[in-house]
């Protein structure tokens, strides 16, 4: 019988921020209900000709990924550092990433990313709320582990 574990609890994501840190950073203390998510990507465009022929073409698109962290996550200082660096240099900081999902025996390599949106401070509620950041990637490469 095959393993059917689908936990995300043992997923590992590392972020490479070469212009700010010498080594990849392992992200930790994720949000409770959602840790990471990628938007669906529209990969093709289609047009119906006036004589009823459907034509399709591949269009490269960026991949938007949202990462959500607990308000107590030590990973937040890295995102705050990226925000501060982008504000002070007025340039995009280039990112790389790798997501390993042992439950499905898959690894995803994210290339040429940039932090597009981010929570600049935690929202206060009954307790401090999770913070979310969106990275836009040029490409994602899946592989087995």
UniProtKB/TrEMBL annotation:
Q: Which domain of life is it from?
A: Bacteria
Q: Offer one Pfam family short name for this entry.
A: E217_Gp32
The protein's name in its UniProt record: Tail protein
Recorded source organism is: Gluconobacter vitians
Q: Cite the source lineage.
A: Bacteria, Pseudomonadati, Pseudomonadota, Alphaproteobacteria, Acetobacterales
